[in-house]
């Protein structure tokens, strides 16, 4: 079968896999991001703010956590760290950020079976991750007193965000 007679979706998958492989070989394909957040700055008592920035599953998880305000703020910091890690893959590339006030709901962070947070992207966030050539982002969150911190690393290859 010639490449041109392939299904367009299959061709797109091949293109993406090649792009990711080339990026990995060329280097500079890993992105890092970090964020420190004062817990009191996150409006975790405001339902509109929560609905704009957190999915129902995230809200349920944080509300059930031992310190819900810290868990909301930690998740917020992790989402900001994810944005920074994505932009850090190609520091001289396109800026996909929409400013500090833009909603972060398209970046969802839920616990995996080990308890470690897992990043699931949706909508525009998923689209631009694919454009950048990122297949997986790992995050880590920490709470300490009045502050939370989060780190993120964007990686080529690996599993699809949408799963
Ligand atoms: C870029 C952004 C993450 C910065 O966050 P912040 O809390 O305002 O800033 P912080 O104090 O944590 O970090 C500042 C540092 O971020 C870094 N930074 C700025 N813009 C950045 C970008 N586009 N990508 C990566 N890092 C960036 C800079 O190094 C800056 O420090 P410097 O100015 O001294 O160099 C934030 O403004 C933003 O755009 N958030 C995402 C909103 C969005 O796009 N939502 C939709 C996502 S689905």
Brief digest:
With 163 residues, this protein is α+β, with helices and mostly antiparallel strands. The protein is built from five helices and five strands, in the order H-E-H-H-H-E-E-H-E-E. Strand 4 (136-144) and strand 5 form a beta hairpin.
List keywords for this structure.
5 helices, binds coenzyme A, three-stranded antiparallel sheet, single chain, two-stranded antiparallel sheet, 163 residues, alpha+beta, Ribosomal Protein L22, Chain A
Explain what the structure shows.
The protein is an alpha+beta fold and 163 residues long. The chain contains 5 helices and 5 strands. It has one domain: Ribosomal Protein L22, Chain A. The strands form 2 sheets. A 3-stranded antiparallel β-sheet has the order 1-5-4. A hairpin with a 2-residue loop joins strand 4 and strand 5. Helix 3 packs across helix 4. The longest helix is centred in the middle third of the chain and has 22 residues. The C terminus is likely disordered. The protein binds coenzyme A.
Category by helix and strand content: alpha+beta
Q: How do the SSEs run, as a string of H and E? A: HEHHHEEHEE
Radius of gyration (CA) equals: 17 Å
Second-tier CATH architecture: Alpha-Beta Complex
Envelope shape: elongated
> So what's the oligomer here?
single chain
SS element count, helices: 5
The major beta sheet can be summarized as: 3 strands, antiparallel
